[in-house]
């Protein structure tokens, strides 16, 4: 009898094909994620679990799976949905899909920067709602990006890719925060590592790229918005919880900052009654950062490779770090 893998959603064939060569693969077929009860029941007996960022994988899920569970492969680079410490303590390997989605996600961030700084959201609505009456000499004005300051909060792989695109395309100056100095980044972008306060007060464009954890939850709140420039735009392609959304709403509504572009919210999807939906200066995407055919195919292959290695007790090629 072949070992069982539970996959919590239909993912690209490139990954499913690899898994099906070796395992009995149970794929959740519905459009929406399995609810808790379904997850706990379907994971039973699996040696491997292929999860999405929207699945909360905690000790209850690990217990429900049973002691044969060897690996959890998240189909994402972020892994705040998994209790990694508990998994490792049980000898369950946990993997993710770094690098292959870096450019796709950075492209999303750059798209949001331009959308935010040039009023794409309200302009699109103007056309759609038949409110486009004439060419406006002083309406819908945004800001140039050339030569402005870009603040990267969390200079990792995706932050560096965003900097590369915005420095290469628009000659932006770069300041950044990171846990440790990054001499190669300083050199590549003539960038300066600064404190969060310095970054927020100096930047015209702020792009968030930190993990979500206890230290970073709501790291951008009322106090942080208050020190940003009035022309600042903030873009979040990391995790919604990094930003205090009530504070963001106030800052956008009262024009403490110019605009925001979000690919992530807290919670996801954004609730129907969220006031952020009503703002002209807030562009919101439904978490599509890595949504390219190329990136998702490669993510599926990496997740499958992680489970193939984990199931035989080998070290996995893409462990979370
Ligand atoms: C997407 O948000 C990811 O973590 O891959």
How would you sum up this structure in a few lines?
This protein is an alpha/beta fold and 321 residues long. The protein has helices at 13-22, 36-42, 59-65, 84-89, 102-117, 120-128, 157-170, 183-189, 196-202, 222-226, 245-253, 293-311, and strands spanning 4-7, 24-27, 46-51, 71-74, 93-95, 149-153, 173-177, 192-193, 205-208, 233-236, 259-262, 282-284. Strand 10 (233-236), helix 11 (245-253) and strand 11 (259-262) form a beta-alpha-beta unit.
Structure description:
- The structure is a single chain.
- The chain has 321 residues and is α/β, with parallel strands linked by helices.
- It has two domains: 4-98 and 293-311, 3-Layer(aba) Sandwich (Rossmann fold), CATH 3.40.50.720; 102-284, 3-Layer(aba) Sandwich (Rossmann fold).
- 36% of the residues lie in helices and 15% in strands.
- The chain is built from twelve helices and twelve strands.
- A seven-stranded parallel beta sheet has the order 8-7-6-9-10-11-12, sandwiched between helices. Strands 2-1-3-4-5 form a five-stranded parallel beta sheet.
- The longest helix has 19 residues, at 293-311.
- The protein is globular and about 70 Å long.
- The two termini are 33 Å apart.
- The model has no long low-confidence stretch (mean pLDDT 98).
- Residues 53, 76-78, 101, 289-290 line the site of glyoxylic acid (GLV).
């Amino acid at each position: 009898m072949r070992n069982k893998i539970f996959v919590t959603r239909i993912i690209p064939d490139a990954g499913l094909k690899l898994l099906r060569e070796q395992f009995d693969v149970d794929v959740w077929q519905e459009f929406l994620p399995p609810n808790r009860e379904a997850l706990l029941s379907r994971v039973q007996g699996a040696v491997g679990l292929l999860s999405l960022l929207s699945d909360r994988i905690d000790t209850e899920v690990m217990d429900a799976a049973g002691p044969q569970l060897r690996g959890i492969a998240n189909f994402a680079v972020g892994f705040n949905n998994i209790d990694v410490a508990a998994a490792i303590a049980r000898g369950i390997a946990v993997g993710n899909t770094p690098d292959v989605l870096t450019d796709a996600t950075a492209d999303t961030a750059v798209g949001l920067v331009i959308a935010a700084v040039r009023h794409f959201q309200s302009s699109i609505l103007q056309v759609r709602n038949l409110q486009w009456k004439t060419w406006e000499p002083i309406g819908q004005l945004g800001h140039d990006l050339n030569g402005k300051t870009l603040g990267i909060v969390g200079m990792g792989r995706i932050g560096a890719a965003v900097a590369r695109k915005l420095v290469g395309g628009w000659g932006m100056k770069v300041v950044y925060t990171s846990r440790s100095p990054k001499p190669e980044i300083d050199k590549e972008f003539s960038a300066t590592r600064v404190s969060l306060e310095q970054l927020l007060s100096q930047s015209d464009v702020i792009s968030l790229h930190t993990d979500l954890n206890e230290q970073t939850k709501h790291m951008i709140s009322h106090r942080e918005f208050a020190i940003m420039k009035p022309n600042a735009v903030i873009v979040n392609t990391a995790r919604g919880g990094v930003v205090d959304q009530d504070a963001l709403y106030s800052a956008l509504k009262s024009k403490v900052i110019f605009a925001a572009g979000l690919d992530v919210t807290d919670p996801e999807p954004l609730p129907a009654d969220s006031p952020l939906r009503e703002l002209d200066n807030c562009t919101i995407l439904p978490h599509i950062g890595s949504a390219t055919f190329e990136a998702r195919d490669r993510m599926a292959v990496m997740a499958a490779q992680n489970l193939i290695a984990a199931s035989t007790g080998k070290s996995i090629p893409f462990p979370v770090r």
